[in-house]
Amino acid sequence: MADPEIKSYEPHHESQSAAVTESLPVRLLLMAVAFAFLVIFVLLPLIIVFHEALAKGLGAYTESLSNPDTRSAIRLTLLVAAIAVPLNVVFGISAAWAIAKFEFKGKAFLTTLIDLPFSVSPVISGLVYVLLFGAQGLLGEWLKAHGIQILFAVPGIVLATVFVTFPFVARELIPLMQEQGNGDEEAALSLGANGWQTFWYVTLPNVKWGLLYGVLLCNARSMGEFGAVSVVSGHIRGLTNTMPLHVEILYNEYNAVGAFAVASLLAGLALVTLVLKTLLEMRYGAEIAATRGH
C-alpha cells in the first residue's frame, strides 16, 4: 500500500516544482522590480521624511515637537487610539467568537458588515457622521437641545476612528477561531468549566498571537487615520487636530520642518509597527506549525 502512495505523490510534487520554478533571468528580473518598487515607494519617502525633519538641525526638530499645538495633536492622537483600540478589541473578540463558534441567521450578513470599512472611503464614513450628528443632521437638533457635542470634538473623532478600524481585530480572529474549531471549548465545558472560564483559559490563550497582531494593526491605523477624522474634526487647532491633520496644516503654512518633524513620529510608528508585525508573524507562524505538528 505504501508504494502506490509514494508513486502518486512524487509526480504531483515534481509538477508543482516545475510550475513554480522560473529561469534565473526571470527570477532576477522579478526581484529587481520588487526591490525597485520598495526603494521608490517605501524606502525613499521614509528617508526624505527624516531628512527634511532634521534639515535645520536637531534643535529646530525638538523645538517643532515641543510646540503647544503639536503636543496637543500628539495627546489627542494617543487619546483617540487609547479609546478606539479597546473598543475594537471587545467588538473583534465578540464578533469573531459569534461567527466562528455559532450558527445563526444573519451570520453571512454580519461577516459582510465587518468588511464594510474596507470598501467605503473614509471620507464617506466621516460624511455619514456629519449627516447624523451635524447641526442639520438627523440627530443634530436633539443633541443641541441636550448640550451634547459629537462633531468637532473628541467623540466624533473617536467614532470615525472606530468605524475605519473595527475590521482589523475581527478579521484576524475569525479565520483563526474557525480553524481551531470547538473541540477545546467542548472539552473544557465537559470538565465542568463555565462559559467565562472557558473563554479566559481556553479560547483567549489559543488566539492570543492573532489578537496581538490585530491590535497592532488597529493601533497603527487609528493613529494614522486622516480622511474620516478630517471630515468630523473641524480642524480646530490645538483642540481637534490629530497628528495627520496637524501635518497638513503645518505643511500648508510652509512650515516644512514642523510638518516633517510630526510626520517623522508617524513614520517611526510605522517602522515600529513593521518590526513588531514581523516578530508576531514569526511567533504566530511557529505556534501554528507546532500546533499542526501535534
What is the CA-CA span between the terminal residues?
Answer: 25 Å
**What is the string of helix and strand elements?**
HHHHHHHHHHHHHHHH
Number of continuous helical runs? 16
Radius of gyration: 24 Å
- Bin the strand percentage: under 5%
Structure summary, number of beta strands: 0
Which word captures the global form?
Answer: globular
- Outline the low-pLDDT stretches: 1-18
Describe this protein's structure.
The two termini are 25 Å apart. The longest helix is centred in the C-terminal third of the chain and has 38 residues, at 256-293. The chain is 81% helix and 0% strand. Helix 9 (154-165) packs antiparallel against helix 14. By secondary structure, the chain is mainly α. Mean pLDDT is 84; it is low at 1-18.
In short:
The chain is mainly α. Helices cover 81% and strands 0% of the residues.
Structural key phrases:
0% strand, disordered N terminus, 294 residues, 16 helices, mainly alpha
Secondary-structure blueprint:
Layout lengths: L1 H19 L3 H30 L4 H8 L2 H34 L5 H8 L1 H4 L2 H12 L6 H6 L8 H12 L1 H14 L2 H8 L4 H12 L1 H17 L2 H7 L9 H10 L3 H38 L1
Helix pairs in contact: 2-16, 3-16, 4-9, 4-10, 4-13, 7-9, 7-14, 9-13, 9-14, 10-13, 11-12, 13-16, 15-16
